[in-house]
Each structure stands twice: as structure tokens, then as C-alpha cells.
Amino acid sequence: MVSLSSVIINDQHNPVGIQSVQQIGWKIHSDQRNVLQLGYHLQLASDKDFQDLLYDSGIVTSEESAHIDGSPLNENLVSAKKYFLRVRVDTTVGQTGWAYGAFATALLDPAEWKGKFITVEKEEDSAKSKGTCLRKEIRLRNPVRSAFAFTTALGLYQFYINGKKVGYDEFTPGWTSYNKHLLYQAYDVTSFLHPGHSTLGCMLGAGWYKGDIGFNRVRNYYGKYTAFSCHLAVEYEDGSQEIFCTDDTWEGADSPIVFSEIYDGEIYDARLEISGWNKNHCTSGNWIPVRTLPFNKKVLTAQAGAKVCRKDCIPAKEIFTTPQGDRVIDFGQNLTGWIEFIGQGHTGDRIELHCFEILDHQGNVYTDNLRTAKSAVTYICRDDEPFRFHENFSFQGFRYAKVVSWPGIPEKENFTAYTLHSDMEPTGQFECSIPEVNQLHHNVLWSMKGNFLDIPTDCPQRDERLGWTGDAQIFCRTAAYLMDCRTFFRKWLDDLVADQTEDGGVPHVVPDILIGNCAQDRLLKNGDHSASAWADVSVILPWTLYLMYGDTSVIRAQYQSMKSWIDYMHSHANGNIWNYRFQFGDWVALDAAEGSCLGATPNDLTCTAYYAYSTELFARMASVIGCEADSIKYMQLHNDIKKTYQETFFEDGHLTAQTQTAQILSLHFGLVPETYRQNVIEDLIRLLQKENGHLVTGFVGTPYFCFALSRNGHIKEAYELLLKEDFPSWLYQVKQGATTIWEHWDGIRPDGSMWSPDMNSFNHYAYGSIAEWLYCTVAGIDTSTEAPGFKKSVIAPHIGGGLKYVKSSYESVYGKIDSSWKTDGNTVTLDIQIPCNTSAQIRLINAAEVIADDGLSFQEVVSNTHIRTASAGSGTYRIIYKLQPDTD
Ligand code: BGC
Description:
888 residues
């Protein structure tokens, strides 16, 4: 039996609102082994019965199943219309039936956008963050065949038709570099509309656009007034068309949202609700005409996936009184999102909750680490009716909430938390025999959920919540193991390009709000963009996406950006040593001077190591897309940097910088001369022993620590590092009850004291990058770089650490890869699944003898007789082997 999954279009299932078909893919399923695709047949039609064919590929001989170029399909497309796709494939075990998919087009050319940007805010409102609502009654002259709404805003908006919210997404239009790149949302609203009157409505809030934003609290960063724009394209049953859009005939009023900002929360006064505001024939409210605002429609782009929406629902776990007498709700999980509360009050009764992450040592409310963020939710009751409320245009990072005010006695049944994050399919699963490691994996996943709210943020709670590039760089491969983040990161990379400086410099945060705004900042006044390991996200993220998904289009899209970042480093390098203006170095490493965030590893070493690494990756990517001249040029530059690195930072066969991070980076980036390799490995082990087996690394060294050990013959030490439970370590946090990853190893110290509240987040995914090692090494699921995207996997589990079993899988673009093992004494049973249309190289590490090969042919590796390898086609396999007697 062989079959297909549904067709995937532009990395999404049945997308609504695409400007072109870029790429098509599918997954092949079979219960047989060694299934390969031989060819495919793809059709596009305007009807679901495929009577009106617009494109027919015929039978194409090809093994490609994940990245079919969609451009031939674009010729006959028109705006605001639904299309149908189907595909069937020939494989080595027979032909599949048809698999189906559909998509709807957005406006193919932004010039078609007819909606004006309208606002009801006045001059004096630029200083306020209140909500407004807009409405317009329209008349549809006929029964509707199809209707698509394209909507966006300056600020945040919710769109309603006839009293119903359109779409399940929140925080639209997301956060982008608005004046250069503004997303619009597309909705199929056919079922919302009927002949006769209908009402279009919109609620607006300040959001990132004009609210206070950044730790320096810049207001009106993108503009002074919120505004909404809508283009509603209707096709009637009789084939005629009509467009309804925002213009100066709309009217507006203040909404019950008296205040709303990202950091400070929301105040909603239900007494100000205008009954039926978004329905026909509304007679209440002080509606006034809107005014239009100029806006460059050329920057409009249809949103492509990864919409922010409500995900997990978490009932309150308990409600208790602290020693200081505060009533506190505990949700049992640090998360990012909303608290929904239900209850009953009287007119004017006030409900006020203050969200926060942790209790202090005495068990009291601790909000100092929120800095200036108020994280407060206030609701004022309208009448004696039951209420149900959550914020609209603000979100909080919290585990707890203090009940400041509530009518009567709050019970835990009154409160439910909802997580909010960008919608991405979960792809990774990991479980092992050590519960603390499972909790660590859980914490990494929850820090990802908590910080992937439209952009990859550093933290979700304090007055920051910014798209710090370094954090994303460190974490992106882990993120790609955990969830399908293709559309999420592609959108963010568009903003990176939009905000890159003319000479190739890369902002510290994307979307950028720091360049030119840091004169008062203690550190950033010395350099408000282009820091090593942070700015390198411009190269490392495209490389990672290429590696994880095998998609070369990301290389093409980012090519100029990557190249100009390397050129920027080149133009500011001294010889081949790059260390320019302000650098974060090994940020928040524990070997820093007391109270400092800047780790002990010298900046010129860290920066030059990244300069070499990014240049090498760029040269490799240039070659992948056939830019050979660039590839040769930049590989030569890489070799020169490497040579200078070796001449500058080594003395007598050892690195001059004797820090853990210096050894790790040099090993992991391949910068150690072969003859000194053993020295550097031994130095790393010595530096580890000096700390009693603990890490003292920061953002730069930590992600690669276990790799540097396990790839250099020290799997035992790598496991010991992972499994350390005392301070500082990953499991120390777990033992302290963490449910997400902390920003600092010493966020809470063993004596109960805390790192300074000026920068102490308990939901910061950076150190969660250890999960990459869990997938790549412990489970052993990796891709070969020759056939990236897991077209060819490398399955190489490293047994050790006393783990009795590991169950792990990764849903690749070809299908599920499974690698699960269990040990019985020295015997390992390894269960593997390889998806159709791919192959794998299986490597048994420290294998003494293969007892059951399940039909595979294992060979000893000539250079290392403790490794047995076999090639495998798709299918499931159970391999049993004996470990070398000395394996720990
Ligand atoms: C952020 C970090 C970030 C750093 C760089 C912090 O405030 O939370 O994660 O990378 O600044 O300085």
C-alpha cells in the first residue's frame, strides 16, 4: 500500500491569501520498505471536480516531493479566488491515488488594494493608548458565491462581520517593520455574508505600532494614530463582482478598552460598551466620521502562515494567600497569554489582576523582574450580568496572578489561562527514562511557546519582549526540531532584511527599534547594531532552515542580506580580526566579573570565530545555489580568517584564552589546527573539572558545549554535564521547580537570593538550545548536509548517561523519523522509522557486535572500529546490538 498526505502549498495546509504559488510538497506513506518516488502528476483547477483544468504537469519523472517549484502554476491565477490542486505519484511500489489541496489567492498586486487607512483618533490621542471601534453598514445586492476580506491595521485590530469575529487569529497584523513591510490578513468570509444589509466592524488598539515599546519605552515609534484598512472582494452568484472598502464614509467611536499596551496590560470598562456596535441598525453610541491617513500601500504583503492564536487551555491549579496576605492564583506553568475570568458583579465593580512569574524566597509576590511592565488586567463590570473576559491587545508572561480586586471571593474555577503563540505544527517528541530530563525538554518547549508570539522574543514578561537576534540565532535549530517554524522565521527574516543598515549592519533586535535610540543606554550607546553572534543570525538562520527543511529558496531570498553582513564584517575587520564597536561577547556567562554580564572570553576571539563561521556557511550556501565565484571568494576569505585566528589565538599549542567558551567555539567551528586538537579537548576537560564538572558558559558557549564534548570523544562528560543537578546546570533549574528555561544560571541562587531584577527573566529560551543535542545526539536524529532536509538522515544515537530508554521522533518535510532505543545491560534495542522517499545512514556508536540487523548490512568504519554503519531505505527497522564493555 502506498498513499499520499494532503498537498502542502507554500509550507501550509490549504492557505488562504497567497500572492503566488511558490512551492508544493506532499508526504508519501507506505507499509513497505525502500519506497522512492519515480515521478509525479500535478493538476491545478478552478473547481473541486477538476473539470476546469488550469495547469497539468503531465507525468514528470522526478524524485522531488517536498519542494516542487510552484511558478508554472501562477500564470492563470487571479486575485481573491479559490483554487484546487491534486497530485498523484508513481513510486517503486506502485502508484498512489490523488491527494488534494486548495488555496485562495490574496491580491496578486498590492496596487489593487482599494481600502483607505481610516482612524477616529485625534491629535491629542497620539499620547494615549485607548481602543477605538469603527463600523460601516454595507448592502449586498445578490446572493454571494464567494467573498474574501483582506484587512490590516496600524496598531492591532480585530475584524467583525455582523457581530462575529472573523478568523481565529489574534494580534493581527503582527509585528513587522511597519513602514517598510506591513502584513495583511486574508479571510474567506463567504459564510458571513447574505443578500441585504451587513455590518463590518473593527476594534483597534495601540499594540507595538504606537504604544510604549522597548526598555527605553519609545512611544509612537511607527506612527501616532491607529488605523484600519479593509478590502472586501465579493463575487455574486450571477458572476458580477463588488468591492467594499474602508473610506471616509465609515464612522468611529471610543471602545470600552480604555487603555491597552503590550507591557502594561489592558483596562476594559464594560459600562462603555456600545450595544450592537458591530451589527446592523446600531442606534447607540457617539459615532463620528473617520478621517483617512496616508500610507504607502506598496509595502503591503499577505501574511503567509504562522498566525498567532490561542493554543493551550490551562485551568487555575490553586488559589492561595501569601504570607504577606495577597490572594494569588497559580496556573502551575509559566506561560505567555491571557487569563480568562468568569464571574458576576455589580455595575462599577472592579476586577484587577497583576500577572507575574515567580514567588520570592518567602513565598510572596515578586514583580521586580518585570521592571516597568505593569502586566495588569482590569475589567469594570457593567451590570449584574455574568461576565467573561480576557485581554484583547496585550499579553502577559506569567505563572501567577495577584488578585488585586474581585467582587466577592475569587475561586480557582473563575480563572483559566490560554497560551498565545504563532501557529506552528509540533514536529519533535522526546522522552527518556530520567524524569528531570523530560521536564527540561518540556521547559524548552514551553519557553519556545512563550516566546514565539509573532516574532522570536527574548522574554515575554518584562518591558522588553523584543526580537533579539542573538537569542534566535542560538535557539533556531532547537526550534526547528520542536515545531515547523518555516513560515514563522521567513516572515521574521523579511524584517531583518528590511531593517538591515545600508552598509550591511544587522540590528540587535528585529523588528529594529534600537538603532538611533540608544544614546542613553549604558552599553548600547557604544554600538546599537551589528554584534557578533547576534547579527550572525542573518547567516546562521538561513543555513539552519536550509539544513532542516532542504529548501534552497531561503538561500536565494537571503543571499544579498547574508553577503552584505559578511562584507560589513570584512570592511570593519582589522586584518582578519573582527571586533568592532560594542559586543555582547559570551553574554551572561558565569565567568564574568562580579555583577557584569560580559563573560571572560575575549571579544576579539568570539567575534573572529563567528566571522570565520558565518563566512564559511555563506560560501557553502553560495555553492548550493550555483554562485560558484562567490563561493570560491568567500571560502578563501574563510581560510584566511581561520589562518589568522590560529596564528593569533594559539600559543604553544594551546588557546591563549583558557575559558570553556573559547575551547568550545574553536572546536565547534573547526578552527583548531589538527595538531593542537587533542590539547584543546584536554583543556576543555580540565576547565570543566576545575568547575567540578559545571559549565560557566554564557549565550555563546552554552549551545555547543555538549556537542564539543560528544563530537570529540567525550560522550561520558557530555552526559555528565547534561545530568548535573546542582548549581549551575540545566537540571538545577528543574530541581528548583522551573517550568520554563531561565535567562540566568543564577536566576535563583542556591541560597534563595536572585540575580538583579534589572534583567532576570524566567522564560528565556536561549539556554534551551540544549534540546538540539537531545535530538541530534541522544536520540541521534540528524540530517546529512549532502542531502539536507532529512532527504538523507543520519541516525546515530549515543547511548550513555545511564539512560534506560529514549523515545524520540521528528516530523520532517518527508514524514516522521523515529529513533527510539532501550538498554538491557549491554544490549541495545534500537527502533527506527525512515520516511518514504528518503534514506538514512545508521551509525551504531560504541558497538561491539550486531546481534540482529533486520536485513541491513552493517560494516565496521575503518577509522573507528567501534562504529558500525549501514545504509537503509524507508521503512521500520529493529536493530539489536551489544555495546563495547567500557560504555558508560
Ligand atoms: C535580552 C537578551 C539579549 C540581550 C543582549 C537582554 O536584555 O533579554 O536575551 O540577547 O539583552 O544584550
